[in-house]
Specification:
Rossmann fold, disordered N terminus
Length: about 750
């Protein structure tokens, strides 16, 4: 915070002079930025010219070298050009005035001599034509004092200045003084950059805090890359944005490792990923994969939540035994015996023999990779059944027999793991799979939820880790190239397979995806292809307190060799069994070195709003981590009645808030009122279309990780009763507003 008296504050003329001084430097930076952009274009043009060079008569390896050089030049030029283009806005945001001991000379004076240094800090490094730095990248070690210096430990810093820019125009400056007795020529302007930033309106997307990072936040951002870094703290403490800045820092500090291996950022919802998606590009990084919990498996995308009881069953590790039994089972309608005539021998393998073959194959291979092993095991079983004189000849004839191939197409087809999960919607199968694992009530809840999936054509978020678990068990669907066969042989095989099991044969028929898009809910559930599991060099998990053990297992498969950044607050948890989740989390981390950073200051909520939320959560969670709110607005939360006209009551609250704040307003409601409040935009549009454009109607769980200028909380008791997490989810809801909040009971 700025420590300056009224007498030391700059006059209007001095402020204008300081702005002009900073504008001169910023103009110079943008001039060099334009030159750098031109150089990047020239490099790209040179690379393309190399690709067009005639290489007649040269060796092929020389030609390939030239093409490689072309691709490398064009790639790096395009990458540099992209960085220059995306960092245009707010490129220079900070300045450090430092004082160092002067270099010793032959004529050393009796008193110490110091020299002044000025460093400008920005979103990426820019140098002049003499290769002298005009701006230092905020992630560079030399920029660390901008975030680490304090009056107690100034690190040589006299003054830290934050520049507010609109495009290339400097529109404001805010200073923090680091020494008690500054030089007389050092001007101090403003009341502190942090408080100025906190009072600004929120937008539809999260802003970076690169200009206002505090010392304790910077320590977490620049923590060692290896192992697990956990960032904890109550609502509004900046955990999310600190973690995102850490991702940008890791890419800067070890680009080869983290750009080639990839960084996965996982958030609770699509609304969250949309909210944070501009932060990393604004920091000079766009090579990070942002995924919501409903998007972590290829070909599965969902925002639908199960009810709390169903989600708890699907999230517990108990469900893995149910899935394991399903993955080992026969496909629906599979033949119970094999009858075939091979080399003059009548072969009959009954269900008991087939079960032994299936069990042996699955002990050694994932289901979809076991085809060759199954064929070999069936051939051996057939040989033992009839004992022909020529063993090798019989085995070869059996394996190549058309009737055997048709049987295998029906008995051992490639199985989509999503199809296996849908088997649990069948009452008889679910009863067998759940026996001794789930109670009858629990089994019915899971089965009913999958019936909903079949009716709506949508998975739930809790289904995603189940699909991933089954994909690990059965393996990826193998696309086998068709063998060359005569027309009549192909026709005969198709006829035999369809006769043996028409529904399975249809399910493995591969057609272009455009031809398979259908209004049928089942086909929508099975659209696309689940590929191999991607693995990342770093995994960043936000709202980690909400993850179920099954979700931790899913992430563990993607982070086997990764370092981790994990962000959370136990008091905001919607997962009911933290002990089981902690064990699954530790397994996902793999015993790596662990460090923890705790954030204690609430920068988001006005003190009046957070006091209201803190009073509520302390009644139910006495040991909740309660941070200190640093800003007062003078406006306490307003309580009102929802009344019979729900839309009218909410519209009136929104209109009142719209007159008080300039940014976004969230109406947070449970499913009970969601349909009614779908009419809210129309009601607001009758009054002021500008208001309607600033309003978002959102469910409680989707607000995690988000913030708004103002909120209208609709029926908090219903939110507590209907949402996973109960009062902890209500605590999340009550801490989303930065400036104003209305609670309608």
């Amino acid at each position: 915070m700025t420590t300056t008296s009224d007498s030391s504050r700059a006059s209007a003329q001095v402020v204008a002079d300081e702005l002009a001084t900073e504008q001169l430097h910023v103009d110079r930076v943008y001039t060099e930025l334009a030159k750098a952009s031109e150089r990047a274009k020239l490099v790209a043009a040179e690379g393309m010219a190399r690709g067009r060079t005639e290489r007649t008569g040269e060796a092929r390896d020389e030609e390939m070298t030239g093409l490689f050089e072309r691709d490398a030049l064009v790639f790096h030029a395009a990458r540099r050009q992209h960085a220059l283009d995306t960092q245009y806005e707010g490129l220079v945001f900070g300045r450090l005035d430092l004082e160092h001991p002067a270099a010793p000379s032959s004529e050393q004076p009796p008193t110490p001599v110091t020299e002044r240094e000025v460093r400008y800090i920005g979103r990426l490094g820019i140098r002049d034509e003499h290769y002298e730095p005009l701006v230092m990248d905020w992630r560079a070690p030399a920029a660390a004092p901008f975030y680490r210096a304090t009056p107690v430990e100034p690190m040589g810093v006299l003054r830290r200045r934050v520049l507010r820019c609109r495009g290339p125009q400097v529109i404001g400056i805010e200073d923090d003084l680091m020494v008690a007795d500054p030089p007389e020529d050092l001007v101090v302007v403003g009341d502190g950059a942090l408080m100025a930033a906190l009072t600004r309106s929120r937008g539809a997307q999260m802003r970076d805090i690169v200009a206002t990072i505090q010392r304790h936040q910077d320590e977490a951002i620049r923590a060692p890359a290896r192992g697990v870094t956990e960032i904890t703290g109550g609502p509004g403490t900046g955990k999310t944005v600190v973690a995102l800045h850490r991702a940008a820092y890791l890419l800067y500090s070890d680009r080869r490792r983290y750009e080639s291996g990839g960084i996965l950022v996982v958030g609770p919802s699509g609304a969250y990923t949309a909210y944070i998606e501009r932060v990393l590009p604004s920091l000079g990084e766009d090579s990070v994969s942002l995924r919501a919990l409903g998007d972590l498996v290829d070909a599965v995308t969902t925002e639908r939540h199960d009810g709390p009881a169903t989600a708890a069953i699907k999230g517990s590790l108990r469900i893995r035994e149910v899935l394991a039994r399903a993955a080992r089972d026969l496909v629906p309608g599979a033949p119970q015996e094999l009858r075939v005539f091979v080399g003059g021998y009548a072969v009959r393998l009954d269900s008991a023999v087939l079960d032994r073959v299936r069990a042996q194959a699955l002990r050694q291979h994932p289901r979809n990779l076991a085809g060759p092993a199954v064929t070999a095991l069936l051939a051996e079983a057939a040989y033992r059944a009839v004992h022909p004189s020529e063993r090798e000849d019989f085995l070869a004839r059996f394996s190549d027999h058309n009737d055997v191939e048709a049987f295998l197409a029906a008995w051992w087809p490639q199985v989509d793991p999503r199809e296996v999960l849908l088997w649990l919607a069948d009452a008889d199968r679910m009863q067998r799979y759940a026996a001794g694992v789930l109670s009858a009530t629990e089994a019915d809840l899971v089965r009913a939820s999958l019936q909903v999936a079949l009716e709506t054509g949508t998975w739930s978020i809790s289904d995603v880790p189940l699909v991933d678990d089954l994909a690990a068990r059965v393996g990826a669907v193998q696309e086998v190239a068709p063998e060359e066969r005569g027309f009549y042989e192909i026709e005969e095989l198709e006829t035999l397979a369809q006769a043996a099991m028409p529904e399975v044969y249809r399910s493995v028929d591969v057609a272009p995806q455009s031809e398979r898009i259908s209004a049928d809910p089942r086909e929508r559930l099975l659209a696309g292809t689940i590929g191999r599991v991607p693995e990342y060099a770093h995994v960043l998990v936000d709202e980690a307190q909400d993850l179920s053990p099954m979700q931790w297992q899913l992430l563990g498969r993607r982070g086997r060799y990764a370092s981790w950044t994990v962000v959370g607050d136990a008091a905001q948890s919607s997962w009911p069994d933290p002990v089981e989740a902690a064990a699954a989390r530790a397994q996902a981390w793999g015993g790596q070195a662990y460090r923890r950073f705790h954030m204690t200051t609430n920068y988001r909520n006005a003190r009046e709003i957070f006091h209201y939320a803190a009073q509520m959560i302390r009644r139910f969670v006495p040991d909740a981590d309660i941070p200190d709110a640093v800003r007062e607005s003078g406006a306490v939360p307003v309580e009102g009645s929802l009344g019979d006209d729900v839309v009218g009551s909410v519209a009136a609250a929104v209109e009142g808030l719209a007159a008080q704040v300039e940014g976004t307003i969230a109406v947070i409601t449970s499913d009970r009122y969601a349909v009614q409040l779908g009419e809210l935009a129309g009601r607001l549009g009758l009054v002021d279309t500008g208001v309607a454009e600033r309003v978002r109607v959102i469910d409680p769980l989707s607000t995690k990780g988000l913030e708004y200028d103002a909120t209208v909380v609709v029926d908090p008791d219903e939110i507590t009763a209907s949402c996973a997490g109960g009062v902890r989810t209500l605590y999340v809801v009550l801490t989303r507003a930065a400036h104003r909040m209305v609670v309608l009971r």
